[in-house]
């Protein structure tokens, strides 16, 4: 690795991420101060680097930290108006038809003709726009008919978080099954032995987070030299989380002449490195402007006083219906969750300090309504889809406009409507105004207090019962615990619990698959 180059890139990245004020938010009682996340983009290109990096030169940057999209040299194929117009295997088309899917989302219709033809693709679309099937259908169709050897997958999807890896796996599984392709999910927080066993048994498609995949490669349990199709999903978050050196190291190991697809809701300057180095004459498609705003989403900035913020938050949490509340630190999440439970609100915490089984169990309970309030750090800002979620609350305002867009992207998905509410203290107003401008959003602004009608009108807030609650396992969850298959070859994380879904009616399974496929981001 070119250490000098990496060091310079890190310095630039640190300066970019360190802007703004974090210490000023400690006064609200939910957030403790902390430094920005370290990043380390930059790594040597693979042997085919010059071939892939040529043709663009230096491009000027656009507003809000995004780079100018590259100009496609080879004209793109026209968009498809129906899945039946696409050159995909018959079993795959039948699987789509059986789930009632005939018309692709815009990003799918625009990119699939080109990705099915083997073109590199750079796609930007808001959360819920259908990015998962935009790359997933092409990946599966082009892999169909091939068989992977032990430890040598044929296609790779890299994602930043465990939750997004599971969502991608869930969305692609019914289509992979129709083509008799084997999927393996490789993420941290789960048994590395089981994941190694799945790779040894042979998996055509691997969905992975960079760190765990790197560990398996170093153990000798995986090789990437036969990977002919590589997808980077939410690459900008991988850069923000400091994964860029691992990502470039992995990309340097895949087939030098293979296909690359990069999809994300935002494309900032850190992603420009990947585009220049690894995409060759890509087809570029952007569903949304840089801000990624959604027309069916309402944005509210609520001015609150520090002494009243806890009460305001509690009343919003006690509303009828589910809500996700975002805070900045694990400690703040746990503190608010405990407070809500003692106030009579069915709340659960989700953050990086929880084990993967705990996180999966919490999400399952939230999706079924057993828990009505999910209190989370940014670990939930991407890769989580919940049907009919109409409210997201930023108890702590996010640090930049990208975090704001991805937090808000948990609601108003796939054409549904929803609201994003941000609670802002007096000393945060100027910073929030700047953040909204960067996001290209003009919010509705109001001054509110707990107990007021205006707060109820905007959020559905109401007084909590005041009767402490304890979250116990649902009956179905207790019956299924420990009953799933263990150590089965090719088993993926969470498969023991998912196996119970196989006992559901065919209609229920089809409906669930359709929701996952249509609304996966």
UniProtKB/TrEMBL annotation:
Domain Helicase C-terminal: 306-456
Motif window: Q motif: 81-109
Domain (DEAD-box RNA helicase Q) ranges: 81-109
Protein name (record): DEAD/DEAH box helicase
Amino acid composition bias (Low complexity), ranges on this chain: 16-44, 492-515
Stretches for region Disordered: 1-62, 457-521
The enzyme's E.C. designation: 3.6.4.-
PROSITE patterns (alphabetical): HELICASE_ATP_BIND_1, HELICASE_CTER, Q_MOTIF
């Amino acid at each position: 690795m070119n250490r000098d180059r990496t060091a310079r890139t890190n310095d630039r990245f640190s300066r970019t991420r360190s802007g703004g004020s974090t210490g000023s938010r400690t006064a609200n009682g939910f957030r403790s101060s902390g430094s920005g996340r370290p990043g380390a983009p930059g790594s040597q290109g693979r042997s085919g680097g010059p071939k892939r990096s040529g043709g663009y030169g230096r491009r000027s940057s656009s507003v809000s930290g995004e780079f100018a999209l590259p100009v496609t040299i080879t004209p793109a194929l026209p968009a498809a108006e129906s899945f039946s117009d696409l050159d995909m295997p018959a079993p795959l088309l039948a699987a789509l038809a059986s789930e009632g899917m005939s018309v692709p989302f815009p990003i799918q219709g625009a990119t699939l003709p080109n990705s099915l033809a083997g073109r590199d693709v750079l796609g930007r679309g808001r959360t819920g726009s259908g990015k998962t099937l935009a790359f997933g259908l092409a990946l599966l169709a082009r892999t169909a008919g091939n068989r992977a050897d032990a430890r040598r997958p044929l296609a790779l999807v890299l994602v930043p978080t465990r939750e997004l890896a599971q969502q991608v796996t869930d969305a692609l599984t019914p289509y992979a099954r129709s083509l008799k392709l084997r999927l393996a999910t490789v993420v941290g927080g789960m048994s590395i032995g089981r994941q190694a066993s799945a790779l040894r048994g042979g998996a055509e498609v691997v969905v992975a987070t960079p760190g765990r995949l790197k560990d398996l490669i170093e153990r000798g349990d995986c090789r990437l030299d036969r990977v002919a199709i590589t997808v980077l999903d939410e690459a900008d978050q991988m850069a923000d989380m400091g994964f860029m050196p691992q990502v470039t190291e992995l990309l340097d190991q895949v087939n030098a002449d293979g296909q690359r697809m990069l999809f994300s809701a935002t494309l900032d300057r850190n992603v420009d490195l990947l585009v220049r180095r690894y995409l060759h004459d890509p087809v570029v498609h952007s569903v949304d402007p840089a801000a990624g705003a959604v027309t069916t989403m309402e944005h509210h900035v609520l001015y609150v006083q520090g002494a009243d913020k806890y009460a305001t938050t509690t009343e919003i949490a006690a509303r009828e219906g589910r809500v996700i509340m975002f805070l900045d630190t694990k400690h703040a999440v746990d503190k608010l969750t405990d407070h809500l439970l003692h106030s009579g609100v069915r709340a659960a915490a989700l953050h990086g300090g929880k084990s993967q089984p705990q996180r999966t169990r919490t999400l399952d309970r939230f999706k079924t309504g057993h828990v009505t309030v999910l209190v989370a750090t940014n670990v939930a800002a991407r890769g989580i889809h919940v049907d009919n979620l109409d409210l997201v609350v930023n108890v702590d305002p996010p640090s930049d406009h990208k975090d704001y867009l991805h937090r808000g992207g948990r609601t108003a998905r796939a054409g549904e409507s929803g609201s994003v509410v941000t609670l802002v203290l007096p000393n945060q107003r100027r910073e929030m105004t700047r953040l909204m401008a960067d996001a290209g959003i003009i919010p509705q602004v109001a001054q509110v207090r707990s107990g007021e009608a205006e707060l109820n009108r905007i959020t559905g807030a109401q007084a909590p019962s005041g009767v402490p609650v304890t979250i116990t396992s649902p009956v179905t969850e207790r019956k299924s615990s420990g009953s799933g298959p263990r150590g089965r070859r090719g088993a993926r994380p969470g498969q023991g619990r998912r196996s119970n879904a196989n006992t559901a009616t065919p209609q229920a399974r089809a409906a669930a698959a359709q929701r996952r496929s249509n609304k996966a981001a």
